[in-house]
Design a protein that fits this description.
Strand order of the largest sheet: 2-3-1-4-11-5-12
Oligomer: single chain
Distance between the termini: 70 Å
Largest sheet: 7 strands, mixed
CATH architecture of the largest domain: 3-Layer(aba) Sandwich
Radius of gyration: 24 Å
Helix content: 40-55%
Number of domains: 2
CATH class of the largest domain: Alpha Beta
């Protein structure tokens, strides 16, 4: 009997020791997890992150990405400047502006190419009509349009441009309601306007004009930037994040309906709008090594047209990861 009790006691002791060791192991693993703060914006800029969010940010055995969605670039800028964000998706020229103004970051990848077009109603001569442009004169749509007009020996003053509606979503609703006739829009609003207006059509593909002007297929519209402190302190985690982004882009392109559900769940955009637009959004993943030449070409064009579009100087080599 005593021998049986001794054996039972030994088994219990071993079991408790194993449970304690497992708990300590899990605790140590949790303490070693690198938490990555990712900032994206509502709209197509955030589409590429859908799989990362779908997987609850678990992209590796010791890396977790916490995705936050912001309504405007201003909020993302504040988070980057304060060091509250490690990684962010931004318009390409805005990344250059922040770098040139002293924010300690690098460009790591391109995740979206150009997706702008002018849409107009049938029986409207769009070149003679008022062209509504969202975001204001310093935003990407206006900068691209103005630059291409200039590069093609036209004068921007010959066009009647209206910047009074800053929201692409609001401008799209005005087009659908026939309270506006012509607008320069990004995706997914082009797809939405065409779907809900039988008399609306694309009258100028901005990407096609860019190719005719530069010889390049497209221009980098959205990029990933990373804080330099994060790069120095977490090189392996950074590699995991960039690989997860590449996988996420692939997932979104190949599973638009599934991706759109997550896009809606994390408040980037309603699924009904996102799903049909994803194939038209020119989502890509190119490491900065692959995309550097086209990024530099794009910056040179912007700088030569309007130096303020990149904060009055071209980013130096230290800007590129």
């Amino acid at each position: 009997m005593k021998k049986k009790l001794l054996i039972t006691s030994l088994i219990l002791s071993l079991a408790l020791t194993s449970l304690f060791a497992q708990a300590e192991f899990e605790k140590a693993n949790q303490e070693n997890i690198v938490n990555v703060e990712l900032a994206v914006m509502a709209g197509p800029t955030g589409f590429s992150s859908a799989k990362i969010a779908k997987d609850n940010g678990n992209i590796g055995s010791n890396v977790k990405v916490n995705t936050s969605v912001y309504a405007s670039p201003t909020e993302v800028i504040a988070k980057l400047t304060n060091g509250e964000v490690d990684v962010a998706a931004l318009p390409t020229n805005l990344a250059a502006i922040l770098y040139n103004k002293g924010v300690d970051l690098k460009m790591a990848a391109v995740i979206g190419n150009g997706m702008l077009s002018i849409v107009s109603r049938d029986k409207v001569d769009w070149m003679d009509s008022t062209i509504q442009i969202p975001g204001g004169p310093s935003a990407t749509p206006s900068q691209i349009a103005s630059m291409l007009v200039s590069e093609n020996s036209m004068n921007i003053e010959d066009f009647d441009l209206d910047y009074s509606i800053t929201s692409s979503a609001q401008l799209t609703q005005l087009l659908i309601a026939k309270k506006a006739s012509t607008a320069l829009l990004p995706e997914p609003f082009i797809t939405m306007a065409l779907a809900k207006s039988d008399d609306m059509k694309v009258v100028l593909d901005v990407q096609k004009l860019y190719k005719e002007t530069t010889g390049l297929d497209n221009y980098p519209m959205t990029v990933i930037v990373v804080q330099n402190d994060f790069i120095s302190n977490n090189p392996q985690a950074l590699n995991a994040v960039l690989k997860a982004y590449e996988d996420s882009v692939d997932f979104v392109l190949n599973n638009p309906k599934d991706a759109a559900k997550t896009i809606e769940e994390i408040n980037i955009m309603p699924a009904a709008i996102a799903a049909p637009a994803i194939p038209n959004c020119n989502l890509v993943y190119k490491s900065i090594d692959e995309a550097k030449d086209e990024v530099i070409t794009y910056f040179n064009l912007l700088f030569n047209f309007n130096p303020k579009s990149v904060a009055n100087k071209l980013p130096n080599e230290e800007f590129y990861l």
